[in-house]
Design goal:
The structure holds three protein chains of three kinds.
Chain A lengths: L12 H4 L6 H21 L2 H27 L7 H18 L5 H20 L7 H21 L12 E2 L4 E2 L2 E2 L7 H23 L2 H11 L1 H6 L4 H28 L1 E2 L6 H14 L4 H25 L4 H22 L3 H15 L5
Antiparallel strand pairs in A: 1-4, 2-3
Chain B lengths: L3 H7 L15 E12 L2 E12 L3 E5 L6 H9 L6 E6 L2 E3 L4 H6 L2 E3 L12 H7 L9 H6 L2 H20 L15 H14 L4 E5 L7 H18 L2 E5 L3 H7 L2 E6 L2 E6 L1 H6 L1 H8 L6
Parallel strand pairs in B: 3-8, 3-9, 6-7, 7-8
Antiparallel strand pairs in B: 1-2, 1-4, 4-5, 9-10
Helix pairs in contact in B: 4-7, 6-7
Chain C lengths: L1 H7 L1 H8 L1 H32 L6 H17 L4 H24 L7 H23 L14 E4 L2 E4 H23 L1 H11 L1 H6 L4 H27 L4 H16 L4 H26 L4 H15 L14
Antiparallel strand pairs in C: 1-2
Helix pairs in contact in C: 3-7, 3-8, 3-10, 3-11, 3-12, 4-5, 4-6, 4-10, 4-11, 5-10, 7-8, 7-10, 8-10, 11-12, 11-13, 12-13
The chains are: A mainly alpha, B alpha/beta, C mainly alpha.
C-alpha cells in the first residue's frame, strides 16, 4: 500500500535510468542519510562509533572496491588485503615524507599507488581466469605483505615495525591522530563512503559497467562484439584497487591509528570476500549490507555466546568461526545473490502488501 | 502491422529504403581458407565472396564447418591457411575487435547473451563501440556522459520497438524463453549498426510463427538498412524464401554456389544431404 | 652491484661448492613436496569427479588429524583409531553431500567454490570446539631415524611418506581408469545434468568421492601432523596446494605429484640460496609467484588438458 509505484510514470529515459527511480526509495534514502549524517553523531556513544560504525564504513568501502572486481567484472580476487596495505603504507609514506601535503591529496595518491599495483598484478588476467586468477591474486597478497614486512623503508625504519598515523586536518578540522574526535572521523568515513558509492554506481550503470558485466558473463561473446578484454579487466583492477587502497588508508588512519602488516593479511581478504558474497555480488547496496552484517555479526554472536550461554571467550571465538562458515553456506544455498537480492524481494513484497499476491 | 520499421528507416544511418534491391560489389571475400584444430579439419580450401546488400545463405549437413566459417570471419578462429578481404583490406586473420569495429556483427548458434543483464542492457552492450566518454565523465554521470548514455538508450529503444520486445526490456535474459533470447541476440547485433550481419541458425528451435517473425525481421533489416546478411540455416523453406544466393558446405569443402533454385536442383548437393557415401 | 651478484652469481657458486648440502636441500624439498602432493591429490580427486574446487581440503586434513589424536587420547589402540577416524571422514562426506552439495547442485562453480570456503571455516571452528586449538603431538609409530646414503643425510620418515604417496597414486590411478565407478566419476566431472540424465546416481558418486578425498586428507594429515605437530597452520597448507595444482593441472593425479615435488624443491632451493639476499622468508610467496609465471606461459599446467573454447 505504502510502496506502490502506481501513478509514477517516467516520461524520459533519464528518469528511468536514475539510481532510485521510485519515489519511496528516494524518500527512504534521504531519511537514512539524514540519520547517518546528523542524528548519529549527536546520539551515539564513542564506543559504538569507534568499534562498530567506523570499521563498518571503512569495510563497506573496501567491499565496494572488491565487488567491482569480483562482482561486476567477474575476476575472483583474494588479494584485497594486499591492495589495502598498499593504500595504507602509501598514505603513511606520503604524510611522513611530505608533511605539507593536503590529506585529500594523500588519499587520492594512495589510491593511485594501489591502482598501479593492482594493474600490475592484474596483467596475468588476460591469460588466466577463474580459480587460476584467484591464485595469482594470492601471489600478490603474500608478496605485498612480505614486502611491507621486510623492506624497512616502508615503516620508516621504526624498530617496532608499526606505522602510526600522524595528525592531519581536512578543511581545518583534525581528522587523524590521537586528538581527532570519533565524530569527526566517523563523518569523514561516512562522506567518503557516500561519495564513492555514488561514483561507482554511476560507473556501473553506464558503458564501463556493462563492459565489465559482459566480460563476467561471457568473455568470448564480449570480445566478439568489440569489447577489449585486457583493457576492460585492467580497468576493473585499477578502479577496484583504487577504492580498496583508499579504504586501506582509512583503515589505518581513521580506525586503527597504528597498524602492522598483520592487519592486512589473508584473513582480511577473506573477510571482504565474505562481505560481498553475503551482501550480494554485483551490487553496491549489497556491499554495504554485507559489511554491516559482517561487522555486527561477531558482536551479536559474542554477546550471545558469552553473555547468554556463558561460554568462555575462547570457545565463543571458535563457535563464531563455525557460525560464520555455516552462514556462508546458508546464504549461498538460500540466496546466492545475497542480502541485496533479499532486500529487493522484500521491496517486491512490500509493493503488494497487504495483499498476498 | 507496425509502423516501427518506417520510423526506424526515417532515422536510419546508412542506405535509404529502396524498392528493387540492387546488390553491390563484394564486401567480403574469403580465399582458400583451411582450418583445423585438435585433429579435426573443419574447413578445406574454402573460397567464396559476399556481395553488399545481399542475403547469402550457408547451408550443409551437420558438421560441415558452417559455424567454423563464421568464426573465422569474426576472427575467433584463425585459419592455418588462406586470407580474408573485407572492405578492400586483405588479412590472413581477423581480430575480433577489428571485426566488430569494422562493422561485422553476429549471433550465435547456442545463444551468447550476457545472462546476468537485462534485455535492454544486452542491447546497450551492442552500442559499446560507439560510446566514447571516458572514465571520469562516466563516474560523474553528468553532462556529456549522461547525454551519450541517453542517446544510445534512445537508439536501443528503437531496436526494441522494431523487434517488438518492449515488454521484456528489463527482464534478465537468463529467464527468457529460447525464442525471445534469439530475438534479443539479434537486437544486440543490430545495435552495432553493422554493415555485415552474420546469423548462425537464427531460426533454430522456433515454431512456425516465430520463424515467420524472424524472417520478417531479417528481410526488414536488409531492406531498410541495406545490411548485408550471411546466415546459416537448416530450414530449406526459409532459405528458398529469403536468400539471394546459397553456398553449400560439406565436410569442410564448398560444393555449390549459386541462386537458390539452381542449388536446390544440384545433384551433388542432394547427394550430400541424403548421405550418399563418397570417398574421402 | 652487490645485490646483482647475490642474485645471479653467488647462489650458483654456493651450490657448486657444496654439492652434498645441495642434495640434502633437494631431498628436504622433495619430502616437503610429497606432503604438498598428498593434499593436492585430494583436491584433484574432488575436482576431477565433481568440478568442485574444494578449498576445505587442507582443513579436512587438519580435522582428520585432530580427530585421530583425540581418539587416540581416549586410549584407543592405533589401528582401531585409524579405522574410526576413517569412519568419521566418511560420515563427514555424507553430511557434506546432504547439507552443502545437494542444495547447490547445478549452481555455477564459483558458488560451489565459495561454499567450500564456508565449509573450511565451519570445519575449522568445529575441530577447535571439539578438540581444542592447542598444538598436539601425533605419533602413530612411523619410523623417524636418520640415516646416510652416500654421504647424504636422509630420514626414514621421508621414505615412508614417499612410499605412501606412491601407493596412493597407484591405487587411485587404477580406480579411475579401470573401474565402473571411476568412469562414472569422470562423467560427473564433465556435466552434472548429463550424468544425471543417463542415470548416474550423483548423490552416491559425490559421497564416494568426498569419502576418498577425506581418507586422502587423513593420510596427509597424519604425515604432516607426525612431522610438525597438529595445528592450525596445517590448513594453510591448503593454500600452498593451489600453486601445486596450477603446475600440475587441476585434473591430473600424476600432475599433483610432479607439481608438489617441483614446488617443494623449488621453495627450499629458493629459500636457502636466494633467501638471504632478499631478506629471508621468501617461502611465503615463492610458490605462488612460480605458479603465476607458469600460468602466464602455460595456463593449463604441465599435465592439464588444453581448454578449447567453442562458441
Amino acid at each position: 500500500m505504502i510502496y506502490r509505484e502506481a501513478g509514477q510514470f517516467k516520461t524520459s529515459y533519464g528518469a528511468d535510468q536514475a539510481i532510485f527511480p521510485i519515489a519511496q526509495d528516494r524518500v527512504f534514502i534521504a531519511a537514512v542519510l539524514i540519520v547517518a549524517f546528523v542524528v548519529v553523531p549527536l546520539v551515539a556513544n564513542d564506543y559504538w562509533i569507534n568499534a562498530i560504525l567506523i570499521p563498518f564504513l571503512v569495510y563497506a568501502l573496501a567491499a565496494i572496491g572488491l565487488n567491482i572486481l569480483t562482482g561486476y567484472a567477474g575476476q575472483l580476487s583474494l588479494g584485497t588485503g594486499g591492495f589495502m596495505a598498499v593504500g595504507a603504507y602509501a598514505s603513511y609514506k606520503l604524510t611522513t615524507g611530505f608533511p605539507e601535503l593536503n590529506i585529500i591529496v594523500v588519499f587520492v595518491l594512495s589510491g593511485g599507488f594501489a591502482a598501479a599495483v593492482g594493474v600490475f598484478f592484474g596483467l596475468p588476467s588476460l591469460r588466466i581466469k577463474g580459480f587460476y586468477l584467484a591464485v595469482a591474486t594470492l601471489a600478490s597478497q603474500f608478496f605485498l605483505i612480505w614486502l611491507f614486512n621486510r623492506v624497512a623503508w616502508f615503516y620508516n625504519y621504526n624498530p617496532s615495525g608499526t606505522i602510526d598515523a600522524p595528525p592531519r586536518e581536512m578543511f581545518g578540522v583534525l581528522i587523524t591522530g590521537a586528538l581527532a574526535t570519533p565524530e569527526v572521523k566517523y563523518l569523514t568515513a561516512l562522506s567518503m563512503l557516500v561519495l564513492f558509492a555514488v561514483l561507482v554506481k554511476n560507473l556501473v550503470r553506464g558503458r564501463i559497467g556493462r563492459a565489465w558485466m559482459a566480460i563476467r558473463d561471457m568473455d568470448i561473446a564480449a570480445e566478439i562484439i568489440g569489447i577489449r578484454p585486457l583493457q576492460t579487466k585492467l580497468l576493473a583492477f585499477a578502479v577496484s584497487s583504487f577504492v580498496c587502497g583508499i579504504a586501506g588508508a582509512e583503515l589505518f588512519m581513521l580506525h586503527f591509528g597504528s597498524v602492522e602488516t598483520i592487519a592486512f593479511d589473508i584473513n582480511l581478504s577473506f573477510l571482504v570476500l565474505f562481505m560481498i558474497i553475503i551482501g550480494g555480488l554485483g551490487s553496491v547496496m549489497g556491499s554495504i549490507l554485507g559489511a554491516a552484517f559482517i561487522v555486527l555479526m561477531p558482536i551479536l554472536l559474542t554477546n550471545l555466546f558469552v553473555g547468554v550461554f556463558g561460554m568462555q571467550a575462547v570457545d565463543a571465538k571458535h563457535a563464531e568461526i563455525m557460525v560464520f562458515g555455516g552462514l556462508i553456506i546458508f546464504f549461498l544455498i538460500v540466496e546466492p545473490h545475497g542480502l541485496a537480492r533479499l532486500w529487493q524481494i522484500a521491496k517486491e513484497k512490500l509493493r503488494l502488501w497487504p495483499f498476498p499476491h | 502491422m507496425t509502423t516501427a520499421p518506417a520510423a526506424v528507416a526515417a532515422t536510419a544511418v546508412g542506405a535509404p529504403a529502396e524498392a528493387p534491391k540492387s546488390i553491390g560489389d563484394t564486401i567480403l571475400e574469403v580465399e582458400n581458407i583451411t582450418l583445423s584444430f585438435g585433429g579435426v579439419t573443419a574447413l578445406v580450401e574454402v573460397s567464396f565472396e559476399i556481395r553488399e546488400h545481399e542475403i547469402l545463405a550457408i547451408i550443409g549437413p551437420n558438421g560441415a564447418g558452417k559455424s567454423s566459417m563464421l568464426n573465422v570471419i569474426n576472427g575467433f578462429y584463425h585459419p592455418q591457411q588462406g586470407q580474408i578481404t573485407y572492405k578492400g583490406k586483405t588479412r590472413s586473420r581477423m581480430r575480433p575487435h577489428d571485426a566488430a569495429a569494422q562493422g561485422i556483427a553476429r549471433t550465435f548458434q547456442n545463444i551468447a547473451l550476457f545472462r546476468g543483464m537485462s534485455t535492454l542492457d544486452n542491447i546497450m552492450t551492442g552500442r559499446l563501440l560507439k560510446m566514447k566518454r571516458n572514465l571520469l565523465w562516466q563516474a560523474l554521470y553528468v553532462g556529456p556522459a549522461k547525454r551519450e548514455e541517453l542517446e544510445h538508450r534512445a537508439f536501443a529503444e528503437r531496436i526494441i520497438d522494431f523487434l517488438e520486445i518492449q515488454a521484456i526490456r528489463k527482464t534478465p535474459v537468463g529467464r527468457l524463453p529460447y525464442g525471445l533470447q534469439k530475438r534479443v541476440e539479434l537486437g544486440r547485433a543490430l545495435a552495432a549498426e553493422p554493415d555485415l550481419l552474420l546469423l548462425d541458425e537464427p531460426m533454430a528451435g522456433m515454431n512456425v510463427e516465430e520463424k515467420e517473425d524472424m524472417c520478417r525481421f531479417v528481410l526488414d533489416v536488409n531492406d531498410e538498412f541495406g545490411t548485408t546478411i550471411a546466415l546459416i540455416e537448416h530450414d530449406m523453406g526459409v532459405v528458398m524464401d529469403i536468400s539471394d544466393r546459397v553456398i553449400v558446405l560439406d565436410y569442410g569443402r564448398k560444393i555449390a554456389d549459386g541462386p537458390p533454385d539452381v542449388v536446390r536442383a544440384d545433384q551433388i548437393v542432394i547427394d550430400a544431404y541424403l548421405g550418399v557415401p563418397h570417398e574421402e | 652491484m652487490g645485490f646483482l651478484n647475490d642474485m645471479l652469481v653467488a647462489p650458483f657458486l654456493d651450490i657448486a661448492s657444496e654439492p652434498i648440502f645441495f642434495i640434502e636441500v633437494v631431498v628436504g624439498g622433495l619430502s616437503a613436496g610429497v606432503m604438498y602432493s598428498l593434499v593436492a591429490l585430494g583436491f584433484v580427486l574432488i575436482f576431477k569427479a565433481s568440478g568442485v574446487f574444494n578449498f576445505a581440503q587442507g582443513v579436512l586434513a587438519l580435522f582428520a588429524a585432530l580427530t585421530l589424536v583425540g581418539i587416540m587420547e581416549w586410549g584407543v589402540p592405533i589401528p582401531i583409531a585409524l579405522m574410526m577416524t576413517a569412519g568419521v571422514m566418511v560420515a563427514l562426506a555424507f553430511a557434506i553431500e546432504r547439507l552443502v552439495l545437494r542444495p547447490l547442485v547445478n549452481q555455477e562453480h564459483i558458488i560451489l567454490f565459495m561454499s567450500t570456503i564456508g565449509l573450511a571455516f565451519f570445519l575449522e571452528g568445529l575441530g577447535d570446539t571439539l578438540w581444542g586449538s592447542n598444538v598436539k603431538r601425533l605419533d602413530i609409530g612411523i619410523p623417524d631415524s636418520p640415516f646416510e646414503v652416500g654421504g647424504v643425510l636422509m630420514n626414514e620418515f621421508e621414505l615412508v611418506a614417499a612410499a605412501t604417496a606412491a601407493s596412493l597414486v597407484a591405487v587411485l590411478a587404477v580406480f579411475f581408469h579401470y573401474t565402473r565407478i571411476g568412469r562414472a566419476l569422470r562423467a560427473v566431472a564433465d556435466d552434472h545434468q548429463a550424468a544425471l540424465s543417463v542415470g548416474i546416481p550423483l548423490k552416491t558418486i559425490w559421497i564416494i568421492v568426498w569419502s576418498v578425498a577425506g581418507i586422502v586428507a587423513l593420510v596427509a594429515g597424519i604425515m604432516w601432523g607426525s612431522k610438525s605437530g597438529v595445528q592450525f597452520s596445517l590448513s594453510l597448507i591448503a593454500l600452498k596446494a593451489l600453486p601445486v595444482l596450477i603446475l600440475g593441472g587441476f585434473t591430473s593425479v600424476p600432475g599433483a605429484i610432479v607439481g608438489g615435488l617441483i614446488i617443494g624443491v623449488g621453495e627450499k632451493i629458493a629459500e636457502i640460496y636466494w633467501g638471504p639476499a632478499l631478506g629471508g622468508a621468501i617461502e611465503g610467496w615463492f610458490a605462488y609467484m612460480l605458479a603465476l609465471v607458469f600460468l602466464v606461459f602455460r595456463p593449463q599446467g604441465l599435465f592439464g588438458e588444453r581448454i578449447i573454447e567453442r562458441v
